[in-house]
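Entry 14. Structure prediction run on the chain below.
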Amino acid sequence: MKISGVITQLRTTDLESSIRFYTKQMGMELAFRHQNFYAGIRAGNQIFHLKQVDVQDPSIAYISQCEHFHLYLETDDATSLSKVLKDNGVNLVKDLHETSWSTREFVIEDDQGHTLYFGEAI
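Output returned:
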C-alpha cells in the first residue's frame, strides 16, 4: 500500500512508546534512530521525525479544537488502510468519509495525541 506525506517533526514524551505505536500498530518502518531522543519513521517514501521532549506538545489541544492536523498522509487506498489500522487496535477519531474536496479520509490520534489525517484522492 502506497503512503506518501511531508517531512515533519512530532514531539513525544515517550520515544519508545511512539516508536512502538508507529511500527507495530501503524505498520510503518523505523528509518533511523539517534540515541534515545530522536527517531525517523518511514511512511511510504517519506520520513517524519519523532523528538523526545519533557513536556507534551502544546499544539495538541489547539489542533484538536480547530479540527486541523499535525500530519496529513496520502494513501492510495484509504478504505483498506482504515480497516488494517482498526484491526491493529488504532482508534479512528473520525471514520472514513468522503469530503467535498474529492478525497476519502479518516482521522486518528497517535499515542501522544497528535492528529493524523489519511487521505485518498477520488
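Residues 22 and 28 are 6 Å apart (CA to CA).
Filed with the rest of this week's runs.
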